[in-house]
Structure to design on (570 residues):
C-alpha cells in the first residue's frame, strides 16, 4: 500500500478531549474518529488491527471446538421478558419499538437469543455438548462513556455460549475456555491476570475476568503474591476486625464549626481518620433513604453496596434531601435521632472500634469518645468497604496488592439461569427431561485494541506487536525528488509485497522528519529508511519496539525483515 493513496491521516496535536494514552494515540494516529460520545468509526488502519485481533480470537475459539455463527443485533423483548432481564437489566439496555409498537432491544449480550435458538434445535443428550460463538457489534447505553474504546456505547465483542448435559461436563467446557483465553492473550502479546469476579447482571454460579493493568481501566483487582489469589475488588471479602482493647473515655459534645470532611475533622480534633465514623446517605429508587456507616479511613465500594441493596437504582442524597430528612448538612450526618424510615447499614470496619468521633445530625457539632453498646447499639453489619493495598488475602492472610485494570474478557458458569426460565430442556439416557447447563464467554475485541496501545506505547506513539500491527513494515523514502532513492524504495516495496510482507510505502512529498514522526506515531514494527546510505549499497532497518538500528545491504534487507517478522510471530 502506498501511503499517498491510503486513507490514513494523522493529527499534529494531541486531541484535547483524550486522557487515556490509547484514546489519545488511536485518534492522533488515524485509527478511529469520534462520531458521538462513546461511538467511534474505525478507519482502515484500525480495521486492519481489529481484523487481526478477531482472527487470533477466531482461531483459538475454533481450536477449542466452538462453532461460529451470527445472531441478530435486534432482539425481541419477549425473549428478555422470559428471563426477567427486560425489567432488571437496567438503563444500559437500548430499547426501541417498531412501527407496530413491538418492543426490541439492541443486544448488549445474547444469552436469551442463543438459548432460544438451542431450545428449538436440541432435545437429546446425544446433541450435547456444543459451544457456539459469534463476533458482533454490541450496544450498551453507558452512563459515562469515556477513554475512547475502553468504555463505549457501541463496540465489537466475541461472545460464546456452551451447552452441556451435566455439571461436570459444563465445568470442563468452562475450563476449556479458560485455556483458550490464556492462549488468546498470549498470542495478542497482552499481559493479563485472571481474577475471580461477580456474576452481576449475567448471573450464574461463578465467573472470572481477564484483566490488563492500566490506570485508565475501571476494574480494581486485588491479588496475592504469596498464594496466587486474585479477584475483582468488589467481591473480595473484608471481615470484621477484632474488638479494640482500649479504655472507654467519657462521651463529650464538641463544637466543630465549618469542619465537613474527614480530613478536616481529623486535623481539627487531632484524631486519626480510623477513629471517625463516616455517614453517607443514599436514596434507593428515589424514595427509600439508606444510611451507610463506615470507618473514616475507608471508602464505600458502590459495587458491593449494589449487591447488598439488590439494585443498581440508588444514588447519593442531595443537600436538600439530607436537610429535609435529617435536619443537617453533609459532613454532620450521624446515627443519633434518626427518623424511623431510614435503613442503616454498618460496614464491618466499624466493629469493635472504641472512642469514636460521631456526628449527631446537628451542624457544627460532633461527639467524641463514643463507644458501642454503651452509647449506641449496632445494626446490620455488611461488607461494603473498598479493598485497599495491604488488606489481608482471604485465602492466606498475606497483604494484598491492589491495581486498576481493564477487563478484556469475562467468562461465566451460568448453570440453568437461562435454560430453566426459557425451558431449554433435553432428554437424558433414561428419558428424563432436564434443563441444559450453560456457560457464556465474552471478549472485547475493540477494547483489546485499546489495551494493546495502553501496554505498548511511548512518548512518540504506538508500538504495535507484530501479530496485530496494521502493517508489518514501513518503507520511508526520505527524498522523493532523488531518482536513485525512489527507484530503490520502489524495488524494495515490490519485493516486500512479493514475499508476503504487509508493507506500506511512504511515498508522500514530505520532509524526512515528518515521515519519521508519523512512522513512530502509527507504530509499524519495522521500517526501512531509504536515504543517503543507498550510495553505499545499504539502507537502514529500524525496529520500533526496541529502537535498534542496522545498516543492511539493499539486496538482503527484505529477507532480513521477513525473518524477524517470522520470529516475532512464534
Amino acid at each position: 500500500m502506498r501511503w499517498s493513496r491510503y486513507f490514513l491521516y494523522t493529527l499534529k496535536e494531541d486531541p484535547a478531549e483524550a486522557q487515556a494514552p490509547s484514546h489519545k494515540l488511536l485518534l492522533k494516529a488515524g485509527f478511529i474518529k469520534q462520531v458521538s460520545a462513546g461511538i467511534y468509526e474505525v478507519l482502515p488502519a484500525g480495521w486492519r488491527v481489529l481484523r487481526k485481533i478477531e482472527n487470533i480470537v477466531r482461531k483459538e475459539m475454533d481450536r477449542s471446538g466452538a462453532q461460529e455463527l451470527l445472531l441478530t443485533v435486534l432482539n425481541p423483548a419477549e425473549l428478555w421478558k422470559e428471563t426477567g432481564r427486560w425489567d432488571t437489566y437496567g438503563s444500559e439496555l437500548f430499547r426501541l419499538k417498531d412501527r407496530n409498537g413491538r418492543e426490541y432491544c439492541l443486544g448488549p449480550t445474547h444469552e436469551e437469543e442463543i438459548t432460544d435458538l438451542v431450545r428449538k434445535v436440541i432435545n437429546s443428550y446425544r446433541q450435547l455438548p456444543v459451544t457456539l460463538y459469534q463476533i458482533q457489534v454490541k450496544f450498551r447505553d453507558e452512563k459515562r462513556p469515556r477513554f475512547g474504546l475502553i468504555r463505549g456505547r457501541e463496540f465489537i465483542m466475541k461472545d460464546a455460549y456452551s451447552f452441556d448435559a451435566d455439571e461436570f461436563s459444563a465445568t470442563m467446557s468452562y475450563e476449556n475456555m479458560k485455556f483458550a483465553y490464556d492462549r488468546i492473550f498470549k498470542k495478542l502479546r497482552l499481559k493479563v491476570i485472571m481474577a475471580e469476579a461477580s456474576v452481576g447482571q449475567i448471573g450464574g454460579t461463578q465467573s472470572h475476568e481477564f484483566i490488563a493493568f492500566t490506570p485508565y481501566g475501571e476494574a480494581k483487582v486485588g491479588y496475592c503474591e504469596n498464594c496466587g489469589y486474585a479477584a475483582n475488588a468488589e467481591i473480595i471479602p473484608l471481615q470484621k476486625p477484632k474488638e479494640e482493647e482500649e479504655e472507654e473515655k467519657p462521651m463529650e459534645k464538641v463544637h466543630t464549626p465549618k469542619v465537613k470532611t474527614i480530613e478536616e475533622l481529623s486535623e481539627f480534633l487531632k484524631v486519626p481518620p480510623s477513629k471517625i465514623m463516616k455517614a453517607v446517605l443514599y436514596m434507593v429508587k428515589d424514595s427509600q433513604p439508606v444510611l451507610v456507616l463506615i470507618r473514616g479511613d475507608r471508602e464505600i465500594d458502590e459495587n458491593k453496596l449494589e449487591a447488598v441493596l439488590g439494585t443498581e437504582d440508588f444514588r447519593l442524597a442531595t443537600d436538600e434531601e439530607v436537610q429535609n430528612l435529617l435536619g443537617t448538612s453533609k459532613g454532620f450526618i450521624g446515627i443519633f435521632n434518626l427518623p424511623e424510615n431510614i435503613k442503616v447499614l454498618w460496614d464491618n470496619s466499624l466493629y469493635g472500634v472504641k472512642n469514636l468521633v460521631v456526628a449527631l445530625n446537628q451542624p457544627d457539632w460532633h461527639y467524641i469518645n463514643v463507644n458501642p453498646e454503651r452509647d449506641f447499639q449496632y445494626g446490620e453489619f455488611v461488607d461494603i468497604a473498598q479493598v485497599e493495598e495491604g488488606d489481608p488475602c482471604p485465602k492466606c492472610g498475606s497483604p494484598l496488592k491492589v491495581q486498576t485494570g481493564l477487563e478484556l474478557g469475562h467468562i461465566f458458569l451460568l448453570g440453568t439461569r437461562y435454560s430453566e426460565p426459557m425451558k431449554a430442556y433435553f432428554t437424558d439416557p433414561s428419558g428424563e427431561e432436564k434443563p441444559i447447563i450453560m456457560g457464556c464467554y465474552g471478549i472485547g475485541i475493540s477494547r483489546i485494541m485499546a489495551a494493546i496501545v495502553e501496554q505498548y506505547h511511548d512518548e512518540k506513539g504506538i508500538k504495535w506487536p507484530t501479530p496485530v500491527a496494521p502493517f508489518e513494515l514501513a518503507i520511508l523514502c526520505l527524498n522523493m525528488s532523488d531518482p536513485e532513492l525512489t527507484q530503490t524504495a520502489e524495488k524494495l516495496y515490490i519485493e516486500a509485497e512479493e514475499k508476503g510482507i504487509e508493507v506500506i510505502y511512504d511515498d508522500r512529498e514530505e520532509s524526512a522528519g515528518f515521515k519519521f514522526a508519523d512512522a513512530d506515531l502509527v507504530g509499524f514494527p519495522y521500517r526501512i529508511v531509504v536515504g543517503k546510505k543507498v550510495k553505499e549499497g545499504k539502507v537502514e532497518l529500524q525496529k520500533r519496539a526496541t529502537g535498534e538500528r542496522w545498516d543492511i545491504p539493499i539486496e538482503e534487507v527484505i529477507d532480513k525483515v521477513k525473518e524477524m517478522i517470522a520470529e516475532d510471530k512464534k
Q: What stands out?
A: The chain has three domains: 17-236+402-454, 252-382, 471-568. DSSP finds 13 helices and 31 strands in the chain. The chain has a mean pLDDT of 95.
